[in-house]
Amino acid sequence: MGADSKMKSPVEPDIQRIPIEDLRLDSNNPRLPEDLVGADQGDLLRYLYEHGVLEELGRSFVDNGYFVHEPLIATPEDGAFVVLEGNRRLAALLILHRSVAAGDIGFVDIDPTADQLARLRETPCYVIESREAVHRFLGFRHIGGIKTWSAEAKARYLLQEVDRAAEEGAEDPFREVARRVGSNAQGVRNSYIAIRLLVHARDELEIDTRYVQHERFGVWERTTHSKDVRGFINFGTPRAYQGVMQALEGIDAEHTREVLNDLKPQPGYRQAVLSDSRDVTDYGRVLANESARRILRESRDLSLARQVIDQLSMPDRVKRLADSGRVLLGEISAASLDRETLSQIARAAQDLQQLAGDLRSLAKGRLEIDD
């Protein structure tokens, strides 16, 4: 393979210089879209070229060489070294060297000399004996560390790790994985549930989840935190791993499809029904009320449906004010107050009496008009 076969543990690895032709992009990289998992090197490289902002890296390599203090992390597989950490850097190097995988891909206005390419032919790498040996490092670095992945990439990584921990017999897979990656059990559970619901909807309910997973995953994850939304899709609030797996079997397919559709723009509309994660609480309240939900379906306007909820809650809000007043009356009766304080209370009570009278007159007047 063109490099020393000696390998160290992830705790004390040696830096090896490996020829560029012996390095491969990782087709199981959690940052890749799911439809690219297992793809060939050419497809991986084109995706990274189109989405990875590689030109700046390429220019830096040509001008400065490769910085040895930023080695790739690789593991031997099938006669080569698969890069588990540093795929963007490897992609930039492959394009500069016009590798077979690069095809017609090239950088504009970057034309390295033969000497510059020769300096970049061998790349510093930490070589780790297996993917499993480096999983904890990558998890800690990108889940709880300073170089975090996107919410969707994190969730796909956690999906694999939690399922692996469950297969290995962990008593609490969420807590076990949280300990490994420097997170907490609730955070791991929330991400796991969000991605697992999408996978179940795609594989078992035949719902197209691609747009939500790739474009709106952050909003979707926040949506799955809502107790009202979970109740609407009949998922509930399971906490243990087995409880989550059991709850998946009972989710309502049509209601799940309805929620997923609300997260993506529909023909004839510029925005999705639920376009902002800050509206998730109100969205859940709307789904939990049949009248408000009907308005939402007819209008596709969350603010209009929210008005129905607000109107329905008005009697409860008035009642809460009355209950608070009764509690306050008891506190004032039992307290020893000076004359100035009592005078202030009397003036405030007069304002309150006037407001209560106006509120009563308004309600009675509306009733008479309706009659």
Mean pLDDT: 87
Number of structurally distinct domains: 2
Give the low-pLDDT segments.
Answer: 2-11
CA-based shape: elongated
Report the β-strand fraction as a percent range.
Answer: 5-15%
User: Largest beta sheet: what is the strand line-up?
Assistant: 1-5-3-4-2
The value of Rg in angstroms is 30 Å
Strand runs, count: 5
- What string gives the helices and strands in order? EEHHEEHHEHHHHHHHHHHHHHH
- What structural class do you assign from the helix and strand content? alpha/beta
- The termini sit apart by 90 Å
- Report the total helices: 18
- Secondary structure: helix percent: 55-70%
Biggest sheet descriptor: 5 strands, mixed
Assembly classification? single chain
Task: Explain this structure.
Helices cover about 60% and strands about 5% of the residues. By secondary structure, it is α/β, with parallel strands linked by helices. It has two domains: about 15-130, Conserved hypothetical protein from pyrococcus furiosus pfu- 392566-001, ParB domain, CATH 3.90.1530; about 135-280, no CATH class. The chain has a five-stranded mixed beta sheet with strand order 1-5-3-4-2. Helix 2 (about 55-65) crosses helix 3 (about 85-95), helix 6 crosses helix 8 and helix 7 (about 175-180) crosses helix 8 (about 185-205). It is elongated. The model is unreliable at about 1-10 (pLDDT under 50).
